[in-house]
Amino acid sequence: MKKRALFICGSMNQTTQMHQIAEKLPEFDRWFSPFYSDGILGAAADAGLLEFTIMGHSRRERARNYLLLNELQIDAGGLLHDYDLVVTCTDLIVPHNIRTRRIVLVQEGMTEPETVLFHLARNFRWIPRWIAGTATTGLSGAYSRFCVASEGYRDLFIQKGVDPGKIVVTSMPNFDDCRRYLENDFEHHGYVLACTSDNRETFIYENRRRHIERCLELAGGGQLIFKLHPNENVLRATREIERYAPGCLVYSEGRTEEMIANARMLIAQFSSTIFVGSALEKEVHCGLSSEELKRLTPEQNRSAARRIADVCRLVADGNPDQ
Question: Which Gene3D superfamilies does the record cross-reference, listed alphabetically (predicted)?
Answer without folding.
Answer: 3.40.50.12580
